[in-house]
Amino acid sequence: MTAEGRQQDSYPHAGAPRRRVLAAAALAPMLAGAPSPARALPTGTAEANGHGLIKPVPTARSHWKSVAKTLGRTGDMKRKMMYHTAFPRRDLRVHSRHIAVKPELALGSHVSFVRYADKSTMVMGDVVVTEHELQPFIDVLHEHKIGLTAIHKHLLAQSPHIWWIHIHAHGHHPVAVARGLRAAFNLTGTPAPLPSPRRQRVDLDTEGIDAALGAKGSVDDGIYKCIFVRRETITDGRLVLPPGLGSTSAFNFQPLGGGRAAISGDCAMVAKEVQHVLAALRRAGAELVELHNHGLTDEPRLFFVHFWAVGDGVRLARALRPAVDATNVVPAG
User: Whole-angstrom Cα distance, residue 306 to residue 268?
Assistant: First the structure.
């Protein structure tokens, strides 16, 4: 078995506190009267050096062939650092507020793999499961030492009941993580991938939406999306996150005809921005769904609010702009 095929190293990276945990683990055998095993740290890592951050390194799709084979589908590269794979739940027929929700509006599972300078790999993702699938899915993640960092909802008054799980793993064996993810997805109704859809037009004034939000959006399988990323450097323990990994604000517009849209949105915020954004969303007529964290050890600490709105696309975008302006973000580009 190859090194990549062996079990991944750990649950979510804990940063500086991890050293104290390792120290306690080393003392435990001594206190019990047993010899303490030696543990070598890779040269050049932040732990070995005692300071500094570990940065992501650029990769290409060719670096992730074994991961793609294990997951059973091909992903794409985002910003030359994140190997991203989508698992849209096209099998589900979900309604919220009497609106049929398209998969790319709010039913898109996805996972991203990132390589680091110490040759380790971080995996983050957001997975859509039904309430019936939720507990078995969680159990398989635990069996494969893949961590859970959030369990929540993105939609109000939904039928059937759907949940979203944020997952996290960090270690030196990405194929083992992919194997665990594949085992968990196999317990769900997640369908096989389809050919990439042709470029589509949407029944929305996209130029008006862009002007209102101050960002150039894009069409994703019939959904118009405007994405923003945080300006700050976001870290997870000692690991620097690539821009947009686990820290995006997304405004997704599903056309309803006549320029109207259903919006499922998500704003990434630091603590001092939260109340300003919540108030701005309510002034815009948006319904608040969830306020929570997506990670466990991110710095600065990020909070996320999911919201829902229905109305004229441009007018809603214009009304939502103050929520964007209340956060330290830039268009993803």
Answer: 9
Q: Which residues pair with 73 in a beta bridge?
A: none
Write the burial class of residue 123 (CB in 10 Å: 0-12 exposed, 13-18 middle, 19+ buried).
buried
324 vs 330: CA distance, rounded Å: 9
State how beta strands 329-331 and 223-230 pair: antiparallel
8 A C-beta contact, residue 147 and residue 300: no
204: helix, coil or strand?
Answer: coil
Model pLDDT, residue 198: 67
Between CA 107 and CA 86 the distance in angstroms is: 10
**pLDDT tens track for 259-309:** 999 999 999 999 999 999 999 999 999 999 999 999 999 999 999 999 999
DSSP sequence for 61-112: GGGGHHHHHHHTS--EEETTTEEEEEEE-TT--EEETTEEEPHHHH-EEEEE
The C-alpha R_g of the chain, in whole angstroms, comes to 21
Contact 107, 207 (CB under 8 A): no
Q: Examine the pLDDT at 209 and tell me if it is beyond 60.
A: yes
pTM exceeds 0.90 for this model:
no
**Mean pLDDT, the chain, integer:** 87
